[in-house]
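To whoever picks this up:

The parser on our side crashed when reading a file containing two proteins. I've narrowed it down to the boundary between the first structure block and the second sequence. Both blocks are reproduced below exactly, byte for byte. First block:
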Amino acid sequence: MEKVKFNSAGVELTGDLYGAGEGVRPAVAIIGPMTYQKEQAPTQYARRLGLQGFVALAYDSRYRGESAGTPRGWENPAHKVEDLEAAVDYLRAREDVDPDQVSILAICQGASIAFRAAAELDGVKALATIAGHYRDREGDLEWLGEDGLQARLARGEAAKAKYEATGEVDYVKASDPVDMNVGMPGGFVFDWYGPWAERGEWENRYAVMSDADLLHYESLSAAKSMTTPWLMIHGDNCFLPNAARRHMQAVPSKLPAKTVWDDTPHLAYYDQPDAIDRATSEVIDWFIR
């Protein structure tokens, strides 16, 4: 693994690069779930792809992990799109990367970011999304309910107005098993993220103003304008399967696209070797084809 740094809109980002070496190779920029740090799911895939002939970049989006940017713990989808586009540009500029063979791999909510980046960038070779959290209003309502959605929007917009007026940032936990007023509520989410926080390897903190940005963001319109060949790995035991179906139905009919749909649980794609190995095999096959 090689530690690398690159710039996104004036912010220095840090990534871990796998598979770099002699010769020119295809490359993959990898973005993870909501509140992710690169050492989590992205590293699982980057290591495997690096061993299979790809230059694979797992990086921290701004405001988290080793990357710069303040305020910390801010989930801003527009900035994440810029960061993913910068990661693709960084790979294209490397001497050991074929600039015409740079693809994107996205996990969970990274999928909604990847749609926008792939739609905006020219020449992304292929896109693969795994257990995607695909963003549209119907999905947000299924996730939070009408009352919960409106309450989070109101809190987020008030917190953002406060930040813009005073520079003060309101925080809640990023995940909690009981409190529903956090970034990612629910026991099954906390069961996965909690140990990372206990080990000091992930910061359980979420800027409340994130909701003002996150809950106004959607990826369905980007799906409708997709020109990048797309592989979707999902299933009924993954988050919001109906939103995944809506996005696949929305892409242009002539777009090369493939769906792998099975009963793998959502979080198995984060750290279970058998699920990750199967998914990585599908991703490699898709990128090669």
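<<boundary where parser fails>>
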Amino acid sequence: MAKTAQEKLDEKREKEYRKKHKKIYRTSAGDVVFNILNYLFFTLFSISCIFPFYYLFINTISDNELVKQGAINFIPQGININNYLKLRDVGDLGSAFIVSVSRTILGTVLMVVASAFVGYLVTKQEMWNRSFWYRFLVITMYFNAGLIPTYLNLVTLGLTNNYWVYIIPGIVQPYNIILVKTYIESIPAELEESAFIDGASYMQVFRKLIFPLSKPILATIAIFGAVGHWNSFQDSLIYMQGNDKLFTLQHRLYLYLNKASNLGSLMSQGAGASVDSAVADALNTKVIKYTVSMVSVIPILCVYPFLQRYFEEGIMLGAVKG
């Protein structure tokens, strides 16, 4: 469609206006040097962060003999995926993976809901003894009973060798509650007041107004919770001594690392022919160690990019007030 004379004239005037009012930015030599050094530093920093994961990955898809010799450093050789396929034959690894996934999902969801509700609760001035309970909550961040009293308490409650020991102790997280509380206080009070005028209850306000508006900070603490649950192995190591079916994936990885270290020490002591049959297992365990490490990292690497924008927004807004 041809443009009219008036449209052409308007475009010409607009271009002249932009050209006239366009700001001219001049870059000095110092700015150029700073930008180069800045980009160089962050490029090297990014590479140093990415390389460990890259190193693990190329060792899991390379020829096992070359991996055993330590010949794989930068470029994979003899590419194959047999190491990942062989993980199906590793005993109890599948059940350990299911335990880790289930505790991560359930533990994170319950922690987020509890943090959101308690964080909203302590923002209410009409809450009974609000200052006392909030200070009591903060004190628990700095003082705790210690490992032995905690263990004895969980034994008394019947939570040892029990799946719920992964979930219940981590539902209430004071630091996350403080982040949520601070974020909720940044939400305009007029929104909540208008909801109360319309006859909404506290629970309705929380469910339909506060919870949806708090998505950035809730996504932030969800990342904290998910990473913590997924990487945790000490609770499995301490509280699951009598139930190996509930070992987490990280605990299984820990056991494989110990096995590799023990066999390596045995070989270094020159045990002779008695360890010939164990040599292959030790070297195979090294490959399994790399593969399982990669498998344990992949889920978090896949989830984080989808929550990154919420994480950045939430951690900044949740830290504005003290």
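After patching the parser it read the second block fine. DSSP finds 14 helices and no strands in the chain. The CA atoms of residues 64 and 175 lie 45 Å apart.
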